[in-house]
Amino acid sequence: MAEKKSSALFVCLGNICRSPIAEAVFTHYVKEQNLSEKWIIDSAATADYHTGKSPDRRAIKCMKRHDIPMSHKARPIIAEDFKNFDYIFGMDENNIRDLKRLAPKNSTAKIELLGDYDPEGPCIIRDPYYDDGDEGFEEVYQQCKRCCQAFLNKVS
Ligand code: 4NP
Fold it and tell me: Could you list the residue range(s) of the whole structural domain that residue 139 is in?
């Protein structure tokens, strides 16, 4: 019988900045450890402002700088996600509040702050959307890198 896969869904407000970066970074580490067959990985939004859009150009630039592939189209989280994914990670406390509000009664997913896995703290992965430059995106990337490595080490 095929081994049951683990699954992680990364969630932020718009699904064009933080969560596609987190999805790409986690996918990268899973691949690096030859675990791709064992994981289902995706990202989603708590709001549907940007449905169907590619990630923000600054997020694309950041991932190119770090040579990490990213390919995602924004989508809102749906009720089935709360049953289909083992882990649903929010980036900040508003995401967690929205996820808890959107979770149906039969939700089985563990809803957690991704930043809680950061060995260096801080626990909040701040929204860089309204920043002028690239620094906020670099910070998001660095946080996602530390958190995704720590999470993967913990569960595998
Ligand atoms: P994200 O960033 O939640 O990290 O994707 C945002 C993207 C868009 C908006 C807010 C945050 N917005 O208000 O359109």
Answer: 6-155
